[in-house]
Structures are given as structure tokens and as C-alpha cells.
Amino acid sequence: MEKDRIQAAKRQMIDRQLIARGIEDPQVLRAMEKVPRERFVPEHLQDAAYGDHALPVEHDQTISQPYIVALMTEALELKGTERVLEIGTGSGYQCAILAELSKEVYTVERIEPLAERAKKVLEGLGYGNIHLKISDGTEGWAEHAPYDAIIVMAGAPDIPQPLLDQLAEDGRLVIPVGGRMGQDLLKVTKRKGKLEKESLGGVQFVRLMGVHGWKQAQ
Ligand code: SAH
User: Fold this and answer.
1) DSSP-derived secondary structure for 17-86
2) CA–CA separation, 180 and 61 (whole Å)
3) Higher pLDDT, 58 or 39
4) H helices, E strands: number in the chain
5) What are phi and psi of 146, to 5 degrees?
6) pLDDT digit string (tens) for 164-174?
7) Ligand 1: which of 58, 106, 110 to mutate, most ligand atoms within 8 Å of CB?
8) Dist CA 119 CA 197 (whole Å)
9) What contacts 132, CB < 8 A, 6 or more positions away?
10) Which pTM was predicted?
């Protein structure tokens, strides 16, 4: 896509998909305007990069719909000083949005070629505050815990305990929880050691595979 068309598609995404549906955080809108989503989607789908839908990437995975990225990011209430943990790097798009809005992003992906591709794209865009690990993200990333915000980009049968353990006091965790065909998007806030849960609505994500997620055989 040439520059003008990308700019127009982006503007339309911001107005019709995000602002019209209630995304308000100016920093989230700024990040979504800045990050070039077309770089994260497969080449033959670049014309559809700013469409109102998820898109397939390699290995049967997806890059989330822009609105869902914005909704989940807004729920993390980022101010720019946070350490954020992302589970499910996928294309790296959500990761770039987080890197715009926080101090350090720790991201974990279990499929190596996806992680390698995401790493290249993110490095190409010059992000210096992203740390990537190829591993089972249902275990979190204990070494750098606690995290002020945790975002899980795949659907879990339950909230993995290690993620709750690695969440800071007053930290926010956003995660889709439910069955294979649909999940409830939950925002969990840790206050005085207790968990407050709020539903942000119904969503459909690929499965979170792992020790504290879906098992291969299921
Ligand atoms: N944030 C991504 C969306 C990724 S889709 C983007 O913006 O493109 C979900 C990703 O979660 C997939 O890449 C999948 O491989 C990954 N995933 C699933 N289970 C995982 C686990 N246990 N640990 C790390 N990544 C996992």
C-alpha cells in the first residue's frame, strides 16, 4: 500500500472502529495511529491490514482485530512507567503498541518462527524496550516480575496461577478465559493481595497452550 492509502485506512480505523466504539485514552489512540500495522501482517494481506477484523498469520495464529487490541490495551491503564508482560507475541503488533505506552515490555511466544519474525519486525522499527523469550508463557517470566500489567493474547481455560503470582500490587491483568469457541475477556486487578474481576465482554481467541493452559491432547 502506498503512504496516502495507509494514512487514510488508519484514520478510518481510529474513527470508525475505535473512537466510535468508546476507546477514549488519547495515548492508546496515538499509539494505534503511530504503529504501522501493515508491517505485521503477511504480505499478501497488506491491503486488509486496517480492516475491522483479525487476520491470519503463520502457524494457524492470528493478529487481533484493531478494536480488541485497543480495548485490551486501554484496560491496562498504562502511563509510560510500567513493566508489562505479554503472553503470545504472535506477529508482534500488540507488543509494539505496548512498547509505545510503557517503559519495558517482556513478551513470551511459544512458536519459534513467529517469535523470530516478530523480533525482526520490531527491531526494524527501532524498539529498544522489548525483551522476547521463546517459552511457555503460562509460566509467566518470573525473572523480571512483578509486572504492573499483564496481557494474555490467547484464550485460557482458567487464569494461570503464575501470572497472578507475578502481578504487582495494584497491577492489571487482561486475559480471555473460557471454552475453545468463545471466551470472556477479564480484567483482574490485584488490590491488597485480593483479586477484583471485571468482564469486558465476549471474545474469540486462539488457544493458550501450555502447562497452565490447554494441553496438546485436549
Ligand atoms: N499479540 C499477537 C496476537 C497473537 S495470537 C499479535 O498482535 O499479533 C496468540 C499467540 O499466542 C500465538 O502466536 C500463539 O502461538 C501464542 N501462544 C499460545 N499459547 C502460548 C503460550 N503458552 N505461551 C506463549 N505464547 C502462546
Assistant:
1) IIGGGT---HHHHHHHHHS-GGGTS-GGGGGGTTSSS-EE-STT-EEPPHHHHHHHHHHT---S--EEEE
2) 14
3) 39
4) 6, 9
5) -85, 155
6) 999 999 999 99
7) 110
8) 33
9) 89, 107, 108, 109, 115, 118, 119, 122
10) 0.97
C-alpha cell recorded at residue 77: 491503564
| Mean pLDDT, the chain, integer | 96
Dig out the grid coordinates for 167 from the structure: 502481578
| Per-residue pLDDT at 2 exceeds 90 | no
Q: What are phi and psi of 64, to 5 degrees?
A: -65, 155
146 prior amide bond cis, ω within 30: yes
∠ CA 39-76-214, nearest 5°, is 75
Question: Which residue, judged by its Cα, is nearest atom 2 of ligand 1?
Answer: 90
Q: Which amino acid is at 24?
A: E
SS3 1: coil
Establish whether residue 176 lines the binding site of ligand 1, counting it when its CB lies within 6 angstroms of any ligand atom.
Answer: no
Catalytic (active-site) positions: 64
pLDDT in tens, 125-164: 999 999 999 999 999 999 999 999 999 999 999 999 999 9
- Distance, in Å, from the CA atom of 131 to the CA atom of 98, rounded to the nearest integer, reads 12
Alpha-carbon dihedral sign for residues 15, 19, 10, 175: negative
